[in-house]
Amino acid sequence: MKLPACWSCKKQFSYGKLLLLWVGSTVCPRCGETNYLTAESRKKGAWYTPILIIIMVIGLNMFDIGFPGIILYGLFFLLIGLSFSPFTFHFTDKQEPLF
Ligand SMILES: [Zn+2]
Predict the structure, then answer these.
(1) Which of 6, 26, 33, 54 has the greatest CB tally within 10 Å of its CB?
(2) Which stretches are transmembrane (predicted)?
(3) Which position has the higher pLDDT, 98 or 38?
């Protein structure tokens, strides 16, 4: 898997910077151009969330883990979702409408 790069100068963004960028835009540290998430990658992100929730619910029915277990399990999946999300990002030079 590869981290996404700036649309202008093709420099890859750092992982930490991408995690902070979940909803909006970022300015490239090298060329100073603003990078927006493409509508496509935002739509993909919107799909992952319900899939993760479904996996979570199935998991909760399989194990009798109690309330603290449910919280830990939820956090675990949230972390996995967050840590993989930057790999699905693609950038463009202008804000695209979602629909
Ligand atoms: Zn750049």
Answers:
(1) 6
(2) 45-63, 70-89
(3) 38
